[in-house]
Specification:
binds zinc ion, 4-stranded mixed beta sheet, flat, about 140 residues, alpha+beta
């Protein structure tokens, strides 16, 4: 993808961030931070924005986990993953080739959403049984 910066490898897969990602990271930081600042004015602008940035980065960590789900299933089928890129609209795992069978394609396609679902269930479980109050509860459970 043009305009992407290689930031390293994840499990041997080249990991890129497209420049457009910084736009959405900034907007999400302002949105989350603004919400926190209005609900918890005692935090101040700097801390609200910092927590907003953390929330935005955690969201993109979940997008990355989703793409790794696609990638690991592809690798298990012998398909090379050329890259994972985060960009304006989310993430993209670049596979070297198509799956050899329709069932293989199905499992590659469903692996990402399954990772997202597992993250949701795990975090929902934690949110249901942990007593978290204040800005942390706002930040962690309104994503
Ligand atoms: Zn996906």
């Amino acid at each position: 993808m043009n305009g992407s910066i290689r930031v390293g490898n994840l499990f041997g897969i080249p990991f890129y961030i497209n420049l457009s990602w910084f736009l959405i990271l900034g907007l999400m930081t302002l949105s989350y931070g603004g919400n926190l600042g209005s609900q918890f004015p005692q935090l101040g602008l700097g801390l609200s924005l910092f927590l907003g940035l953390i929330a935005a980065l955690l969201l993109f960590a979940s997008v990355l986990a989703h793409e790794l789900g696609h990638s690991f299933v592809a690798i298990k089928q012998g398909i090379q993953v050329k890259s994972i890129t985060l960009f304006l609209f989310g993430g993209l795992a670049g596979l070297d080739q198509e799956a050899k069978t329709p069932a293989g394609a199905f499992w590659i396609a469903i692996a990402g959403p399954l990772v997202s679902l597992l993250l949701f269930l795990g975090l929902h479980f934690i949110g249901s049984y942990l007593i978290v109050t204040g800005a942390l509860s706002c930040c962690a459970f309104k994503l």
